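Q: Two folds, back to back.
A: First:
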Amino acid sequence: MMQDQNSLKFDSENPDNTNSAFSTENSLEVVTAKEEKPSRYVAKNQKIYSTNDAKNFEDILRRHLVKVNEKTLTRNELLSQHKETLLQLFNGGVTVDEILTFLQENNFTGITAENLQEILKKKK
């Protein structure tokens, strides 16, 4: 037991002893190694992106932002918002059927002849 205490005393006094559990250099190296290990692990598994990837990423995020901020309108709100344009078409001689046909050709559905007739009635 006395011999163990002497060797511990000797180990702690001898800074050149690399096997010492009390060596401050070794304890710092162990902490440093533990801190570096996760960053190395992350760096090895991270994908490297090009400038073009960054531009595509930004474009995707911007499109999503527009989609999230996009407002929805009811049919009546849509018709009210574009009432002036519809009235210009009607004043130019375009019929309700022509407008409906044109809307259907452009894959725009949900507007009926009755909806357009209401706009015409309000015109008079």
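A: Second:
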Amino acid sequence: MILQRIRAAAKPATQIPKPQSTDIYTVVGWGQSRGEKALVYRLPTKSGTKKASEKRITESAFVAGFEVLQKSGELTREWFKRNFPALERDGGCNFTTLGGILELIGEAQYAGPGVYKKTKTAG
């Protein structure tokens, strides 16, 4: 069910909420990564480059992140590093994108460096 909500909210060109950043990260669509479906998103273009880069977050990361948020009331970068080390190695923006997408659907809110908390109105 969480994946349907994410797919409905994270349409191409949707801006992803990012903490403490004025850079704009946007949803590209859905593709494949590490043998499963994944959200593809675009990072801001760095000065001196012509093409923006893209990253991916797997469906399993969204499901697991949502479950830990529901059970513990928070989602932390430490949890993300332990459970999704390959995604963490791809860049720290993967954690804030996971949290930002959960924020987009009203399940989480940024609570400080490395922490998203479950919203009070969320299930």
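Q: And?
A: DSSP finds five helices and six strands in the chain.
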